[in-house]
Design goal:
Structural class: alpha+beta
Strand content: 15-25%
Radius of gyration: 21 Å
Distance between the termini: 53 Å
Length: 380
């Protein structure tokens, strides 16, 4: 029997509430770190503080030490995945997603157009790097171990290897678990796995399922934006989900086809959406080709810098409404300052944001009192 709601038209407001619900932003959830990380499709992690803040704004009772423990226990792992950017995902997701991401990483070319080593030589270097990183190594150590090759300087060799070998980032005894000089280990060795459990085909299907459960309903172009893979590359994964009978379809207000997993709830368009503070590079803002369900095109130009830096934001009624910054005041007290795009805020929203800001300041103050301060050069 045909799906009775197939191709139902969804408004932008309905899509907004669906995204917020799946991203745990309508209400804080009672989930452990691993389950939450899988539920929301991973946490972008260029900036060490962001995964912790991203979970704090989504989980009831979350403390940064909760994520630190999961990282130390290796039940979650930091590595290069979607969009060729650093993410924290569950160990299971990393192993199942990596084969789908490999073509993206292998397709990246240097801006100076330096060509990679001969394929056979590159394969030998990859094996050498994998063996050397059976235990964590600094990038300088790895560069020196690999050395020069076929006219390429050691730094150039390392550039290619970092886009060919699955490296997990090993934590350090610092705030937010990771410093700015990474130590890397081969992911299979780090996670105690013998091999990748998924073929490329199975990995693509898992990628599609993970995305739609975290961000659907969405277009194929949205899925492409989140993953970094061309639309044509993800279509086999979409087809596999469809063949299993788990795909349902809608359209948006512009008549574009939206994909979703069967059985996932769609909240009412009027579901309350309390104000929330989002970290830098929160995937909620980055996971769509058309981001207007969450942020206007005008405001996106303020939030996302030309170099891709995505500033810390806050939402009001589910929509990005401004930026926030941590400031250290006289006496050493950390205060989270709210900077709305269009003041003044409604009194109830201002009060709710003040409460959120006070709670977040208590989280960041012991670890990095002026978190993100070096990015304030991009402020409007």
């Amino acid at each position: 029997m045909p799906d009775p709601i197939a191709h139902t038209r969804l408004t932008r407001r309905q899509l907004n509430r669906a995204t917020l619900a799946r991203q745990l932003l309508l209400e804080r959830a009672e989930l452990d770190v691993v389950a939450a990380t899988e539920r929301i499709g991973g946490l972008q992690a260029q900036e060490p503080a962001s995964p912790h803040i991203g979970l704090w704004t989504r989980l009831a009772g979350f403390q940064p030490a909760d994520l630190d423990r999961a990282i130390a226990d290796r039940t979650v792992v930091k590595g290069t995945l979607m969009r060729s950017t650093l993410h924290i995902v569950s160990a299971s997701d990393y192993l199942r997603l990596w084969p789908a991401i490999v073509p993206l990483l292998e397709g990246i070319r240097r801006q100076d157009r330096v060509q990679p080593p001969d394929p056979r030589r590159l394969a030998a270097l990859q094996a050498r790097a994998a063996a050397f990183t059976a235990e964590p190594r600094g990038l300088g150590e790895l560069r020196d171990h690999l050395g020069a090759s076929e006219g390429l300087a050691p730094d150039e060799v390392l550039w290619w290897i970092r886009r060919r070998v699955a490296f997990a980032h090993a934590p350090s005894d610092v705030a937010w678990s990771f410093g700015r000089r990474p130590r890397v280990a081969h992911a299979l060795a780090w996670l105690g796995a013998d091999d990748w459990p998924a073929s490329t085909e199975d990995a693509l299907e898992h990628l599609v399922r993970r995305y739609l459960s975290a961000f659907g309903p969405a277009t194929a172009a949205d899925l492409s934006q989140w993953s970094g893979l061309a639309v044509g590359k993800v279509r086999p994964g979409i087809a596999a989900v469809d063949a299993a009978g788990d795909l349902r379809r809608f359209t948006d207000e512009r008549g574009r086809e939206l994909l979703d997993l069967d059985g996932l709830p769609l909240p009412d368009a009027d579901a309350p959406a309390p104000p929330r503070l989002l970290p830098m590079w929160d995937s909620t803002i980055l996971a769509f080709a058309d981001r207007t369900r969450l942020i206007s095109d005008e405001d996106r130009r303020v939030v996302v810098a030309r170099n891709g830096d995505t500033l810390p934001t806050f939402t009001v009624d589910g929509v990005v409404a401004g930026l926030w910054w941590a400031k250290v005041e006289a006496g050493g007290r950390t205060r989270i300052a709210i900077e709305p795009f269009r003041p003044p805020l409604a009194r109830s929203d201002a009060r709710a944001l003040e409460h959120e800001a006070e709670q977040l300041s208590e989280v960041v103050a012991p670890l990095e009192p002026a978190v993100y301060s070096r990015y304030q050069r991009w402020r409007p």
